[in-house]
């Protein structure tokens, strides 16, 4: 197995142990679930993405939170270790760098939970439930209320990122054991957890991936997003080419224009 790499976590998932000084907001996640604090974050972030209203703020922040979840998934499958990541041990920081609003998720300390020699499936189930039910779920519930979004829409941002990057990680790995862990662990996340763990009727990761023709290369396929990210409700944004809300005839027009450009 590859070894623990804090630089990798910071670069790819914005998980770090280093607090920034140049923040617009820095707050414990346990405080952020309070309505008045989540409202403050929404108010700060909305103009940074030129949001027409609060709804895209919810999907965008949901996407950033998905990075934390993906980071945990990666370390569990590749390094065979998890983190005890309770809300009172996590600080959410909002900042602007290179004219781009970004988030950083700062752990008080790396409280690692090593996988056992036997009973890995039970260990993994325990780690999933601790994080999704007790840490991420309260944040998403608070975010959904503050941005007037269905919780399902915010949860729905995560599978898009997971499906893309987990395939990428499998392709990049030279270790067949790691490749199998990546596949099997994600299958467990999708199939073994009931919807109630997320506060939903159905597990939000248990979705069918749909594919469409690549906009610039007819010989390739790209994934449709699992849920609309509401980019079209920001600034002069429009429906993404891979948006599930975009009608196929409109997608064909976009594809034709790209091929002729």
Automatic annotation (TrEMBL):
InterPro entries: IucA/IucC-like_C. Pfam families: FhuF. Residues 82-212 form the Aerobactin siderophore biosynthesis IucA/IucC-like C-terminal domain. One of its GO terms (molecular function) is catalytic activity. This is Aerobactin siderophore biosynthesis IucA/IucC-like C-terminal domain-containing protein. It comes from Brevibacillus parabrevis.
């Amino acid at each position: 197995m590859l070894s623990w790499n804090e630089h990798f976590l910071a670069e790819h998932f914005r998980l770090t142990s280093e607090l920034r000084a140049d923040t617009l907001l820095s707050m414990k996640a346990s405080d952020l679930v309070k309505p008045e604090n989540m409202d403050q974050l929404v108010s700060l972030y909305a103009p940074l993405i030129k949001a027409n209203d609060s709804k895209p703020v919810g999907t965008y922040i949901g996407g950033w939170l998905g990075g934390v979840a993906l980071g945990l998934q990666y370390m569990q499958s590749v390094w065979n270790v998890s983190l005890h990541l309770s809300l009172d041990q996590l600080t959410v920081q909002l900042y602007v760098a290179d004219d781009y609003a970004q988030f950083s998720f700062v752990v008080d300390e790396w409280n690692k939970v090593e996988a056992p020699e036997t009973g890995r499936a039970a260990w993994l189930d325990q780690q999933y439930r601790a994080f999704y039910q007790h840490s991420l779920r309260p944040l998403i519930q608070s975010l959904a209320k503050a941005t007037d979004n269905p919780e399902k829409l915010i949860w729905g941002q995560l599978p898009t990122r997971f499906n893309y990057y987990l395939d990428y990680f499998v392709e990049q790995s030279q270790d067949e054991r790691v490749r199998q862990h990546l596949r099997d662990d994600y299958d467990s996340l999708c199939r073994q957890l009931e919807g109630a763990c997320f506060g939903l009727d159905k597990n939000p990761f248990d979705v069918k991936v749909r594919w469409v023709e690549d906009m610039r290369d007819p010989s390739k396929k790209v994934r449709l997003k699992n849920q609309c990210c509401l980019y079209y409700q920001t600034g002069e944004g429009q429906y993404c080419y891979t948006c599930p809300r975009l009608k196929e005839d409109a997608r064909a027009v976009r594809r034709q224009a790209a091929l002729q450009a």
